[in-house]
Design goal:
- Belongs to the phD/YefM antitoxin family.
- With 80 residues, the protein is an alpha+beta fold.
- Helices cover 64% and strands 14% of the residues.
- The chain contains 4 helices and 3 strands, in the order E-H-H-E-E-H-H.
- Strands 1-2-3 form a 3-stranded mixed beta sheet.
- Strand 2 and strand 3 form a beta hairpin.
- The chain is elongated and about 60 Å long.
Length: 80
């Protein structure tokens, strides 16, 4: 993750966008909360994860599915 000041951000926006294309960029401000700039695809993936885990029923089902996949993978690995 890169860390930049808000002043740097305003004077070097093209460079910041280039950095955000490959990683997260942390924009620090003295008097306010910090900001994070990241690729839209990363943001959308995070939103999808939040949506999937939004209810306890979904979270439980996902956990059960992961446990089943792990158990199947371990069983297959032991057979080979």
């Amino acid at each position: 993750m890169y860390s930049l000041s808000s002043h740097y951000l305003t004077t070097h926006i093209d460079e910041v966008l280039e950095l955000a294309g490959s990683d997260e960029v942390l924009v620090t401000q003295d008097a306010c909360d910090n900001l994070i700039i990241l690729k839209e695809s990363s943001w959308r993936a995070l939103q999808d994860i939040v949506h999937l885990f939004a209810t306890s029923v979904n979270a439980e089902r996902l956990q059960e599915s992961l446990q089943q996949v792990r158990a199947e993978f371990l069983t297959e690995a032991c057979v080979e």
